[in-house]
Amino acid sequence: MTFEIKPYPELWQSLDMDVERFDKARLMLGEAYEKTYLSQQNRPGAMAYFDNMIAEIHGGRIKELMAAKAEGRPVIGTFCVYIPEEIVLAAGGICVGLCGGSQGSVPDAEKTLPRNICPMVKSAFGFKAGRICPYFQAVDFVYGETTCDAKKKTWEILDKMVPTYVMEIPQCKNPRDIALWNEEVKAFKAKVEEVAGKTISESDLAWAIKTMNNKRRALQRLNSLRHHKPCPISGKDGLLIEQIAFYDEPIRFTEKVNELCDELEGRIKVGEAVPTKNATRVMIAGTPMALPNWKIHNLVEGAGAVIVNEESCIGTRYFKDLIDESVSTMNEMLAALTDRYKEIDCSCFTPNNERLNQVVKEFRDSQAHGVINYSLQFCHTYNIEEIRIREACEKEGIPYMFIESDYSPEDIGQLQTRIEAFLEQIRD
Ligand code: SF4
Ligand code: SF4
């Protein structure tokens, strides 16, 4: 089987992209996908939908965004799980996560930004600077936040190329911080209404909250099935779905995740396992793995183990908390939104004790044998929080390993040796 990411040169041209360069990147991504994903044995049949989402990543989904724009519906680019997506959906708009998981766009960013900042920020910025991402070209504006220094200072530079709206995310969770966040949520609603040219009604927002909760419920369901022993699906496939969650249409995505879950339940009934019944089980914690960052999953699963959980923003941090659906006035719903988003335990908060408990809880729930805590290079908050995560795991007797890496292939040999030694140590 030969996999191809479909080319749409005319569409890319209309978006003022560097078509020649982007077409090369398309071929490379297609090859990497085929090697990483289609070489896996015994994949669930329902993964065909997600394979197609990758095949159409640079065309089919972009056409849907352009059709929405033609109807006056806003398309908003995001980088963080702190985006109150419900507000965008309620206004008829679309949120798309802007990829920041590729080494290919890093040199474009390094022409402007310092080299020693997080690769996710550089990668995302480079996609816009090099005009090599159709999503970046299609958005009405980019939503940025003040979660970390690298991002908040980059928004000032990015704003010269694409309108960038910044929400202030507090760094603590005291009542006055929550009040600030609630004000920010209200201001964001006003901004989205201005771009959409419509006022969000209470019923619009109630519908959007329910829609997003259903999406999170489907992802929670998938995650619990991955916790089953033996595991019915690979960690690579689990991660892929979590990555696609950031750019697919939410109602269709929810249906497809639930169809996959039905299939996985059938697999569990007959004891079907991926890759084998006795595979060593690993949980990942840490910084997000944006598309197409499959580096650690490739190494761990390439060594015969299976990843059963990602405690990450491209993972449980995105879907573990639901919004209260029992309230109905606009102010109550905005307060419920604020409440749900304050549960996100990103390392940008201090203190962040909730995350320590969450890592231990997810380790127990997922029946993993050990935790690999992963931080992107130069991410100060996750790198420093590593100390407390390690202490929490040691206290609970949880086998633990820390990896700091970027997107380059240079450390793959060294990481492979370290990962194989860790797997040997935690094997049943
Ligand atoms: S790790 Fe923090 S800053 Fe990064 S996406 Fe998650 S919540 Fe946002
Ligand atoms: S991984 Fe860390 S440094 Fe990179 S964008 Fe997220 S919070 Fe900022």
What does this 3D model show about the protein?
There is one protein chain. The chain has helices at residues 9-14, 19-38, 47-55, 60-70, 85-90, 106-110, 119-129, 134-138, 149-158, 175-196, 202-226, 235-244, 250-269, 295-302, 316-319, 330-342, 353-366, 380-396, 412-426; strands spanning 75-78, 94-97, 141-145, 164-167, 281-286, 306-311, 370-376, 400-405. By secondary structure, the protein is of the alpha/beta class. The strands form two sheets. The chain has a four-stranded parallel beta sheet, sandwiched between helices. Strand 3 (141-145), helix 9 (149-158) and strand 4 (164-167) form a beta-alpha-beta unit. Helix 17 crosses helix 18. One iron/sulfur cluster (SF4) binds at residues 80-82, 147-148, 287-288, 313, 344, 346, 348.
